[in-house]
Amino acid sequence: MVSSQTPPMDSILDQYLNYLMVEKGLSGATLDSYSRDLIRYQKFIQNSGISGISENDTALILRHMIALRNAGLDARSRARHLVSIRGFYRFAVQEKILKHDPAGLVDLPKTTLKLPDVLSVEEVSLLLSTPDPTKPIGARDAAMLELIYAAGLRVSELVNLKLQNINLESGFVRVFGKGSQERIVPIGLHAKKKIEDYLKHSRHTLLKNQISPYIFVARGVKPITRQGFWKLLRRYGNLAKIDKKITPHSLRHSFATHLLEGGADLRAVQVMLGHVDISTTQIYTHVTRKHLKELHKRFHPRG
After folding, report:
1. Distance between CA 160 and CA 291 in Å, rounded?
2. 275 included as an active-site residue
3. Which residue among the candidates 178, 193, 226, 291 is catalytic per the annotation?
4. Residue 154 annotated among the catalytic residues of the structure
5. Which entry of 90, 226, 249, 291 is annotated as an active-site residue?
6. 201 an active-site residue?
7. Catalytic residue among 86, 154, 192, 258
8. Is 178 annotated in the active site?
9. What is the pTM of this model?
10. 189, 191, 259, 280: which is deepest, by most CB within 10 A?
11. How many Cβ atoms are within 10 Å of 151's Cβ, its own excluded?
C-alpha cells in the first residue's frame, strides 16, 4: 500500500506526462500512447483495491502483465505497456516519491518482433553505387542514399534537411527528429564526398538558378518528398538486383545493425538514432546476438 506521504497516482501521472512533454520533448502521439498505457495500469491498481503506488509493486506489475496477456494483447503490445510502466516508476524514484524501483525487476515479454530486412554490408555497397553521379539527379540520389545510411536518418529527417543543418568541414549533420528532438550525427567520409560533389556540381542545375534552403531538391525549389525518395530507393534496389524489400527504414536498421556488429556501444547507437528510451534500441541486440553466434560457430574450435 502507498504511504500517507505519497501523492495520489493521478497527481504523479500528471507530473510524469508533463515531464515527458516539457523535459523530454515527446510528440503528442507518443504522449497519448504512454497516457493510455498508464491509465490502464491505474485502473488495474484501483480494481485491485490498492490506493496508489509503492516500492513493493513488483508482484502487482506482474499480475497486470498477466492480465494484459489474458486480455489478448500480444508480446509486443505488452512490452510497450511495460516500457511505459518502467518509465513511470523511474520518474517516481527520480522525484523521490519512491525510494526503490519495483518495475526494474520485471523482464520485458519475449516478442516475435520482426525487423525490416537488414541489408548486408555488401548489399548496401551495391545499392549505394547504383546511381549515376555524372547526372544531376544521380548525384543527388547518390548523396541522399549515402547520407541516410551513414547517419541512420529517418526519411522525414532526410528530406527536410536544410543547408544550415550540415557542416561538411566537421563532418556532422544536425537533425531534428521526433518531438523536435535535436541530435548531432557524424556522416563519414563517403557521404561527405558525395554531398560535396552534389552541392558543387549538380544542385544548381536542379534549382535552375532559383534559391531553396533545402539540401535535396526536386525539379524547382521544392524539396524531394518522402514518397519521391521511396520511389527512387525502390528503383535503385531493383537496378542493384537486391532480392529484399528495401525501404528507407531498411537503411536505418542496417545502419544500427552494422554499427553494433562492428562493436559499437548500444548507448552510442541510441544517441545517433535519436531514441529517447534505450529499450527501443534494444530491439537490435537480437540481430547482433545472432551475428555473434554465427561467428562463434565459424571460428570457435568447439563451435
Report:
1. 34
2. yes
3. 178
4. yes
5. 249
6. no
7. 154
8. yes
9. 0.59
10. 191
11. 25
* Rg of the chain (C-alpha set): 23
Q: Are 233 and 130 in contact (CB under 8 A)?
A: no
pLDDT at res. 301: 57
Judged on CB neighbours under 10 Å (0-12, 13-18, 19+), 185 is buried
What is the pLDDT, as a whole number, of residue 299?
A: 57
pLDDT tens digits for range 66-114: 899 889 988 888 888 999 999 999 999 999 999 999 998 887 776 555 5
Categorize the per-residue pLDDT at 4 as very low, low, confident or very high, splitting at 50, 70 and 90. very low
Name residue, grid cell 527528429.
177
* Known active-site residue 149: no
Dist. CA 174–CA 184, nearest whole Å: 5
Mean per-residue pLDDT of the chain: 85
| Residue 302 a catalytic site member | no
Maximum pairwise Cα distance, the chain: 73
Q: Annotate 15-43 with b (16+ C-beta within 10 A) or e (fewer).
A: ebbeebbeeeebbeebbebbbebbebbbe
